[in-house]
Design brief:
437 residues, alpha/beta, seven-stranded mixed sheet, four-stranded mixed sheet, 13 strands, 38% helix, globular, binds 4'-deoxy-4'-aminopyridoxal-5'-phosphate
Length: 437
């Protein structure tokens, strides 16, 4: 029994399941979750002193690598000035401006105003309330397997931990709340049009993951999000693009920016951000055109608030991270993803394991089927049991992967040749283990 086992035993006595967020519990892969003691660059170290190359990156935020010295220094400097004020600060103004400036492409600038919140869940929850407030309508269209956080109306057919645990939804959500969410298969524009034909005048908005990454990674069909914008706008509804995971990760202007540059321009009404925008501290955001955003209190009737919103330490981490997320950083992430995906595919092919590696920018996932999935139904049609031995072989070789086949893998700017080399070396044995399963 090592230190991780001891801690997990103690944790389970005082914390439900021993974890503060379900997918951390290794529910689908089994075994003892690693209790992390520190994280630096591309590496994490567990409570037993074992070091791993990390491909979780705290589920996305660590774009520059863990504990980047400039980000840590910025947080320390902010802490010395006071931990929280509950009053406006200069840093918030700088961060909101930086977000609006960065999210521009092809002559489009969808963000004029930004509201800072503390979690991605809050950002999407507020975005939906705002869409309902602006339109005076109740219904929301979401996609099967898209995850937008754990607020009541959004846990109908969500991915991420819900996908892993194969729950249909969750207990504790009133049927009346779930009934105002219309769930449509991802990628199916005809289904979206049908829902609008039937209920169009009651639909406040569509919410979509800019690129789905919570049922594994799914590459959005070319022009899909642009078509959603058109359908929503024709019906007087809003399009909410959830970039909590993809924002500032897959491209300097998020997945929206990547698509505009690829020749599929569209104007989302609200974009939500989280993860990278807070540089590893609790911070998330929503942004949009002034006419929409000013419907939020205090200028408008849609209420939203937060004691710790725009927390000065989080803002400092977000600013320090975004200021350093240069084109060179994105080029490095892409190269690191190239190296890992090429080696991963070669190792699995050498063992005759059917697989596909869907990829969006530097974000990618592994599926044990011979073609990339298009939606949640096809994402679930894979030899998922192969992931358990694969995951544990990687862990034994010192590589920390997300503990579920339905999660994306995250590289960082700190994944240098040595870190990438350690991942590549671990792949053949893990692929053999997957082949035997
Ligand atoms: N939206 C998306 C697309 C996400 O991936 C997540 C979290 N993984 C959320 C929303 C919720 O964010 P948070 O966990 O910060 O509440």
């Amino acid at each position: 029994m090592d230190r991780n086992d001891e801690l997990f035993d103690r944790a389970r006595r005082v914390i439900p399941g021993g974890v503060n967020s379900p997918v951390r519990a290794y529910g689908s892969v089994g075994g003892t979750p690693r209790f992390l003691a520190s994280a630096r660059g591309a590496y994490v170290t567990d409570a037993a002193g074992q070091e791993y190359v990390d491909l979780v990156a705290t589920w996305g935020p660590a774009l520059l690598g863990h504990a980047h010295p400039d980000v840590v220094a910025a947080v320390q400097a902010a802490a010395a000035q006071g931990l929280s004020f509950g009053a406006p600060t200069e840093g918030e103004v700088r961060l909101a401006s930086l977000i609006a400036e960065r999210v521009q492409a092809g002559g489009l600038a969808p963000i004029e105003e930004v509201r800072l919140v503390s979690t991605g869940t809050e950002a999407t929850m507020t975005a939906i309330r705002l869409a309902r407030g602006v339109t005076g309508r109740d219904l929301l269209v979401k996609f099967d397997g898209n995850y937008h956080g754990h607020s009541d109306g959004l846990l109908a057919a969500a991915g991420s931990g819900v996908a892993t645990l194969a729950l249909p939804g969750t207990a504790g959500v009133p049927a009346s709340v779930a009934a105002s969410t219309l769930v449509v298969p991802y990628g199916d524009l005809d289904a979206v049009r049908e829902v609008f034909a039937a209920h169009g005048e009651r639909i406040a908005g569509i919410i979509v993951e800019a690129a789905p990454a919570n049922m594994g990674v799914i590459e959005p069909p070319a022009g899909f999000n642009a078509a959603l914008a058109e359908i929503a706008h024709d019906a007087g509804s809003l399009l909410i693009v959830d970039e909590v995971l993809t924002g500032f990760r897959v491209h300097p202007a998020g997945e929206w920016g990547r698509e505009v540059e690829a020749g599929h321009p569209y104007e989302p009404d609200i974009i939500t951000f989280g993860k990278v925008v807070g540089g590893g501290m609790p911070l998330a955001a929503l942004g949009g055109k002034r006419a929409v955003m000013e419907q939020l209190a205090p200028t408008g009737p849609v209420y939203q608030a937060g004691t710790l919103s725009g927390n000065p330490l989080s803002v400092a981490a977000g600013l320090a991270t975004l200021e350093r997320a240069t084109p060179e950083v994105y080029a490095h992430l892409d190269r690191a993803a190239d190296q890992v995906t090429t080696a991963l595919s070669a190792a699995l092919a050498a063992e005759g394991v059917a697989h596909a590696i869907p990829r969006v920018g530097s974000l990618f996932g592994l599926v044990f089927r011979d073609s990339k999935p298009a939606d949640y139904t096809s994402a679930k049609q894979q030899d998922a049991h192969r992931f358990t031995p694969f995951f544990h072989a990687m862990l034994d070789a010192g590589v920390h992967l997300p503990p579920s086949v339905f999660e994306a893998w995250f590289v960082t700017a700190a994944h240098d040749d040595e870190a990438l080399g350690r991942i590549v070396e671990a792949l053949p044995a893990a692929s053999r283990a997957a082949a035997r399963a």
